[in-house]
Design a protein that fits this description.
The complex is a heterodimer.
Chain A lengths: L2 E3 L4 E5 L4 E3 L2 E3 L5 E8 L6 E7 L7 E2 L2 E6 L4 E6 L8 E9 L6 E2 L3 E6 L1
Parallel strand pairs in A: 2-12
Antiparallel strand pairs in A: 1-4, 3-9, 5-6, 5-10, 7-8, 8-9, 10-11, 10-12
Chain B lengths: L4 E3 L2 E4 L5 E6 L6 E7 L6 E7 L2 E5 L6 E5 L5 E5 L8 E8 L9 E2 L3 E5 L1
Parallel strand pairs in B: 2-11
Antiparallel strand pairs in B: 1-3, 3-8, 4-5, 4-9, 5-6, 7-8, 9-10, 9-11
């Protein structure tokens, strides 16, 4: 069975600090795609960053970057220079190359303090 | 840029009534997904469609049905509503394998069953 574990239910940091959200997953498949989604209080689900499992290079999107360790099945998200607007629930998820459904973690509530 | 459109945004129904949720994917997206998110929970995959055919099925109750039409919009039909069906229902769309399964979410329909 495919699972995603986010071990940090809630985190809080000061504005402008760097924060890392952890995510581990389990699958016996070798081809899949990993994602981080952000859900602010509006509850809109926003794609933050994605990573193809066959790529060794870590994905980056402006202030957001990932540390992808395929052997360890780890996919952490680093947010640099955090901003108040980064306050949200962050969900780690992946989808297998063989089907369509996203497998989600339970989420990490991130609070950025002024 | 055009986003996924969902209607209605809010819906209040009584127990045992029926509801129909609509989803209009991003232009040129051929795959539609439906998710249910209860309060404080991660999204649960319900069902997906690729090129108007059901592509994957998750934890969708038998009381629910869905389809994708020739213009790629999708409808989720929910009958014999129960209190436990109260949730945020997301529709997402993607171009399938063309974009590594990146799923873009609509704003959601908040269903309240009383």
């Amino acid at each position: 069975a495919q699972t995603v574990t986010q071990s940090q239910p809630e985190m809080s940091v000061q504005e402008a600090e760097t924060v890392t959200l952890s995510c581990t997953y389990d699958t016996s498949e070798s081809n899949y795609y990993l994602f981080w989604y952000k859900q602010p209080p509006s509850r809109q689900m926003i794609l933050v960053i994605r990573q193809e499992a066959y790529k060794q290079q870590n994905a980056t999107e402006n202030r957001f970057s990932v540390n992808f360790q395929k052997a360890a099945k780890s996919f952490s998200l680093k947010i640099s220079d955090s901003q108040l607007g980064d306050t949200a629930m962050y969900f780690c998820a992946f989808v297998l190359d063989s089907n369509y459904q996203l497998i989600w973690g339970a989420g990490t509530k991130l609070i950025i303090k002024p | 840029a055009a986003g996924v459109i969902q209607s209605p945004r809010h819906l209040i129904k009584e127990k045992r009534e029926t509801a129909t949720l609509k989803c209009y994917p991003i232009p040129r997206h051929d795959t539609v997904y439906w998710y249910q998110q209860g309060p404080g929970q991660d999204p649960q995959f319900l069902i997906s469609f690729y090129e108007k055919m059901q592509s994957d099925k998750g934890s969708i109750p038998d009381r629910f049905s869905a389809q994708q039409f020739s213009d790629y919009h999708s409808e989720l039909n929910m009958s014999s509503l129960e209190l436990g069906d109260s949730a945020l229902y997301f529709c997402a769309s993607s171009q399938g394998v063309a974009t590594s399964y990146e799923q873009y979410f609509g704003p959601g329909t908040r269903l309240t069953v009383t």
